[in-house]
């Protein structure tokens, strides 16, 4: 999967958040999207995910050498962010089944293996609404990691995680970002230190 941004800009009302982004995200590489609070990292990743339209410019997706229609992009990406809501009335095991009603499992994973990866065996029948914010964040990451998709988008991946949770993320990110185009929105070095490529949205004010 390759994603090309041509002269991308986004404004809310009259305020331009960024303009003139020309950039290519190449297959199976890892990118950090950097910038201060409010600089537009989440806005950019929402545009890349095709959840938000750019106010100007073009974005193109190439999958296996062929152009991909914008309306089909969602099928090829996994996304985790603190502002993404989980269905609170589901138990852990139900939410995994629900998620994988729409997505395919990464090879070698199923409901049980994801619960093992989370280390949440004793919480399998607990409702998501009774999970702590850090536990929910781990679930969001595990669902994204274990979905078979060529694009992995993580916005503030260690938000709400304690030191143990951060270590859990760090122990997994290299493995799950391998062979997929990975974008990490962050201003915390530990979250993206493995990314060789960096795009700072503040360079496009
Ligand atoms: N729907 C919206 N309507 C109006 N303004 C918005 C909207 N969404 C975002 N903004 C504004 O766009 C700017 C960029 O927000 P964004 O969330 O992309 O920043 P960020 O770099 O991800 O910030 P943070 O590091 O705090 O998460 C901010 O000024 C924000 O208030």
Automatic annotation (TrEMBL):
It comes from the Bacteria. Signal peptide: none annotated. Transmembrane segments: none annotated. InterPro entries: AAA+_ATPase (IPR003593), ABC_transporter-like_ATP-bd (IPR003439), ABC_transporter-like_CS (IPR017871), ABC_transporter_ATP-binding (IPR050763), P-loop_NTPase (IPR027417). It holds the Pfam family ABC_tran. Keywords: ATP-binding, Nodulation, Nucleotide-binding, Transport. SUPFAM superfamilies: P-loop containing nucleoside triphosphate hydrolases. GO terms for molecular function: ATP binding; ATP hydrolysis activity. Residues 3-204 form the ABC transporter domain. Gene3D superfamilies: P-loop containing nucleotide triphosphate hydrolases. Belongs to the ABC transporter superfamily. This is ABC transporter.
């Amino acid at each position: 999967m390759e994603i090309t941004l041509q002269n991308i800009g986004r404004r809310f009302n009259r305020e331009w958040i960024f303009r003139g982004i020309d950039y290519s995200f190449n297959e199976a590489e890892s990118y950090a999207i950097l910038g201060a609070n409010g600089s537009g990292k989440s806005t950019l990743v929402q545009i890349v995910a095709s959840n938000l339209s750019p106010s100007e410019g073009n974005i193109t997706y190439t999958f296996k050498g062929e152009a991909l229609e914008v309306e089909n992009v969602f099928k090829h990406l996994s996304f985790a962010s603190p502002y993404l809501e989980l269905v609170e009335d589901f138990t852990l095991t139900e939410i995994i089944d629900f998620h994988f009603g729409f997505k395919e499992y990464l090879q070698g994973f199923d409901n049980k293996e994801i619960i093992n990866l989370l280390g949440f065996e004793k919480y399998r029948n607990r409702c998501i609404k009774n999970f702590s914010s850090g536990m929910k964040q781990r679930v969001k990451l595990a669902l994204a990691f274990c979905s078979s998709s060529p694009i992995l988008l993580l916005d503030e991946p260690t938000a709400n995680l304690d030191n143990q949770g951060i270590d859990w993320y760090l122990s997994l990110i290299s493995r799950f970002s391998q062979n997929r185009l990975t974008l990490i929105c962050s201003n915390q070095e530990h979250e993206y230190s493995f990314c060789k490529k960096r795009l700072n949205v503040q360079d496009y004010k």
